[in-house]
């Protein structure tokens, strides 16, 4: 198993223990679906509730990681970070992108013993277009190319 | 010119090239190197494992 799968399995095990519902978005989700990029952090989309914020605190203790808040282009973000990983929890994407609708289109991918919802490329594209940050703009053409090529391969 | 040192990868690369040709026929405006990276990522056997996390080792970011 690759380093990435080992790290994700460890994180997903802890997420399951605190009963947090997450959807993988961002660079990791893009890369897992063929977009040729690499990333430094793992981004999860979660519902914006006080209970979820408590669960993130619990998770950070379980993973022996540091926790801090920051303001992202689209929403407030809670980050938990250790020497092995950086995880961002994002509460909002584009205005019309609700947690349930993103999850209904997401793929379930297995990492070791644990499953994780991975957001659809079109949903991540929408969020990147909405955030309008220079680093997101750079990846947009690659997401569009991957969507086109995926469609073409499915037809072949 | 392609030089192959690994038979399994040679077969994989042949499959990539075949798909890339079809993709580039449909989308001639796309960059062939980018198309290769995407096709490679999409058809790569799961057992090879996907690499996407960069780690900082001695001041340098590595996969």
Write the layout of secondary structure elements.
The complex is a heterodimer of chains A (156) and B (63).
Chain A (H helix, E strand, L loop, with lengths): L2 H15 L5 E3 H7 L9 E4 L4 H13 L3 E6 L4 E6 L4 E5 L8 H7 L1 E5 L2 E5 L2 H11 L2 H22 L1
Parallel strand pairs in A: 1-7, 2-5
Antiparallel strand pairs in A: 1-2, 3-4, 4-5, 6-7
Helix pairs in contact in A: 5-6
Chain B lengths: L6 H20 L5 H12 L11 E3 L2 E3 L1
Antiparallel strand pairs in B: 1-2
Helix pairs in contact in B: 1-2
Can you describe what's shown?
- The complex is a heterodimer of chains A (156) and B (63).
- Chain A is an alpha/beta fold and 156 residues long.
- In chain A, strand 3 (66-71) and strand 4 (76-81) form a beta hairpin.
- Chain A starts with a helix and ends with a helix.
- Chain A is built from 6 helices and 7 strands; from the N terminus they run H-E-H-E-H-E-E-E-H-E-E-H-H.
- Chain B has 2 helices and 2 strands.
- In chain B, helix 1 crosses helix 2.
- Chain B has a two-stranded antiparallel ribbon with strand order 1-2.
- The longest helix of chain B is centred in the N-terminal third of the chain and has 20 residues, at 7-26.
- Classes of the chains: A alpha/beta (156), B mainly alpha (63).
- Chains A and B meet through helix 1, helix 2 and helix 6 of A and helix 1 and helix 2 of B.
């Amino acid at each position: 198993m690759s380093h990435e799968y080992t790290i994700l399995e460890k994180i997903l095990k802890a997420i399951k223990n605190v009963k947090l519902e997450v959807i993988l978005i961002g660079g990791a989700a893009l890369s897992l679906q063929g977009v040729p990029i690499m990333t430094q952090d793992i981004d999860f989309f979660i519902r914006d509730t006080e209970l979820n914020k408590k669960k993130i605190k619990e998770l950070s203790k379980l993973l022996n990681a540091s926790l801090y808040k920051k303001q992202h282009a689209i929403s407030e973000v809670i980050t938990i970070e250790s020497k092995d990983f950086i995880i961002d929890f994002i509460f909002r994407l584009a205005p019309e992108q609700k947690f349930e609708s993103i999850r209904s289109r997401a793929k379930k991918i297995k990492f070791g013993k644990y499953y994780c919802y991975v957001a659809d490329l079109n949903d991540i594209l929408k969020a990147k277009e909405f955030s309008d940050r220079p680093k997101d703009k750079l990846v947009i053409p690659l997401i569009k190319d991957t969507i086109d090529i995926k469609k073409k391969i499915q037809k072949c | 010119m392609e030089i192959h040192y690994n038979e399994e990868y040679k077969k994989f690369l042949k499959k990539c090239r075949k798909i890339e040709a079809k993709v580039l026929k449909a989308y001639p405006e796309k960059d062939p190197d980018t198309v290769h990276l995407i096709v490679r990522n999409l058809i790569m056997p799961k057992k090879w494992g996907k690499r996407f996390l960069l780690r900082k080792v001695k001041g340098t970011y590595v996969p």
